[in-house]
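Q: For a teaching session next week I want to show students how multiple molecules come together into a single three-dimensional assembly. I've collected the sequence lines for a complex. Could you give me the predicted structure tokens for the whole thing so I can convert them for display?
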Amino acid sequence: MKKIYLLLILSLLSVQSFAASCPDGSDPVKSISDDGTFFVYKCGGSNDNKTKTANQTSTDSDKSSSSKNKTSPVDSNIVIYDVIFSSTVLNELLGRVVSKTDYDFSKHNLAKNINKHNCSFSLSRVVYDQSTLGIIEGWSMAKGNINIKGSDVEFAKSNWSQNMGGLSNDPSYFRDKVNLKLTEGGHFVGKMAYFTHTVKQGEAPMNPLYVTLTKHKRSEPLNLKNIAKSYKAGTIWIDVEDWAGGVMTITNCKEGNI
Amino acid sequence: MPKINLSRREFLKVSGASLFLAGLPLPGFTKDKPSGTISIIMLEGGMDGLTAVPPFGDPNLLRMREDLTSTNFLKLNSFFGLHPSFEYFAGLMAQNNASIVHATSFPYVLRSHFEGQNLMQGGGLSPFSETTGWLGRALDLAKTPGRSLSLDMPLILRGSKDNDNFYPASIKSSGKLMTQLINSISKAHSKNESTAFTKISKKSTQNEVNIPRDPASLAKFAGKAMAQDGGPLASVIKVDQFDTHARQGSEKNGHHGERLVIIDDIIAGLKEGLGEAWNRSIVLTLTEFGRTVAVNGSDGTDHGYGSAGLLAGGAITKSRVISQWPGLGKNEQFEQRDLMATIDYRSVCAACIENALGLDHDLIANKVFFTPKLPRVYDLIFS
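A: Of course. Below is the structure for the complete assembly, covering every listed component.
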């Protein structure tokens, strides 16, 4: 019976110590003992380095704060570590936040003094799964017109085929996600949004790839001395993925833009 | 039909993320539209803050976990580094649009995913104590309960009964539900019950949304939606697989590094989608707990306590690492195994709510987190 009384008294004391406030009216700080086996309650909000409290900022007693709310203290031990980069690193980092179509044209000799022209184009898929040279599929992935002026190249009235599905039906990709230039050798260089996967109705659409157009060894460049000389003005080969690429046939070039 | 080759990295990029949007202002109910937006990235499994943001200035870091620390981290200052997976986030730090809170956690130390995630979303004082979530309660207080654009309503967004959820299904013929039939049934019921049918009718006539399902695209979609006038004020994107008990890896192509790339892509997607609205937005990550300081026997880490929180957005005007660094010595660790959390992450969430929704800190502390003395860390993040 004495043991029961003792247990009762001890448990009451325990509850009392848990619920009590510190002499200054603040809440006691709950911390974990050195060996991690029991909780320790301390007044005064002292920060014993050997005894770590869980979420100390929420349990520290009132300290001065620059916040507008004086009843919600912020722990003055929180340190702000400023982020400091060297100018070289900073410039490199700032350069990372770029558009997916950004391209450095400085390594190319771009075309000059080219009058306004417009051409038709047809883009076909080339698949490499059965032939290393690739097999050009017999349908157009995209069709439309290209406006050329100087080295500037832009698509006009151009659309991906309805068969491509997914996001390709959004005309803004041909309008806003293309950054191509014409080189003095008659090649297209730069980057553009490119859809290579066919997405059927009900399938989750896929984002376009952003392919880089280069001076491809299989391309037949435009003859800049006389772009409109023949019906077929050139073919631009595009490397896309290891299983497929594209070939853009440019025809029917005329003076003036669309 | 050409075959589609998906690498493991590409597969990971199109899997494992869910988007929830909330806080679409209700005409006639919402009074003053808050000026900001808040986007949450929930990292399920327990992100390893010591790998994501290595405190290389702590001499115990390499001693305790050399195999988990990237050799290629970016030095943010003389003490903290940034994992190389965060390419975009690093750019934002350079632009003074991103900060990190380190050695932080929700006040939960028992290392259970289920309890930890519940507390992380509920924002209460103990797991399973709340039936609503802290973001939902905050949206209620901002008088923008609105709708959640999701299949299910995650706990974090649950608020008042006015909350509603909708997901734009692309299942064939799902948009052709017989609204006439629903209306007829609706008329046969009482006013309260007919509300449910009205909601169903409205849902069935929503336009389909054509977006890819990879995390970055979901984020871009969320950003675009939030940027619209009258668009949602809050978005939640959930990413899983941070529970790296084995072969965690240290570099970008490791398991943990690939998950960090997804966070980076999501932040990039949100910024792209938000456009100009980025300047009034805040993005923050949540995770239920951190990992053990020491490497375990299978080259991974186990459930821990303290971790790191990433913050980004135009609402931040000075990049910082904010921490009360506890140290990584054995006696400095929580229970001699975990990174100690010295900042209650709920105060970080409170600061972000204050910034985005314009609510007073006291109100947030009392009504959202039920902790009147929750510290206000707003000035540390946003001043």
